[in-house]
Amino acid sequence: MKKGQWGVAEETVQDAVLVASELLTNAVRATRGRPVSLRLALAEDGLRVEVWDTSPVRPKGTAPDLSMPETPVPDEAPDPGGWGLGIVEFLSKEHGVRAEFEGKTVWALLRTRFRPSG
Known about the structure:
The longest helix is centred in the N-terminal third of the chain and has 22 residues, at 10-31. Strands 1-2-4-3 form a 4-stranded antiparallel sheet. By secondary structure, it is α+β, with helices and mostly antiparallel strands. β3 (92-99) and β4 form a beta hairpin. It has a domain at 10-56 and 80-110: Heat Shock Protein 90 (2-Layer Sandwich). 25% of the residues lie in helices and 26% in strands. The protein has helices spanning 10-31, 84-91; strands at residues 36-43, 46-53, 92-99, 104-110. It is built from 2 helices and 4 strands, in the order αββαββ. α1 packs antiparallel against α2 (84-91). Keywords: Kinase, Serine/threonine-protein kinase, Transferase.
């Protein structure tokens, strides 16, 4: 997304970069070097971020409550991951997984703010 191209607020651009990063990281981990793709689309209902990968396995993870001022984190977490889907959930109006002929698409519809015109 070229900065300023779609007229969305900087905050929305930052959210899109973070969500895309989380979804792409999950896709790369799930497919171990096989193809993945990213698609961004701006529609009336918001900015949609979609990541396709070749794995049919749906992402798993606990979505931590990111609205809490302090979320306790264990001193020794068995897996350093597991926060990505919680971040995606927190930043999106809706999110989900769509099965494809080969693999799946994980998507998020972001809360979208636009820059003031003029």
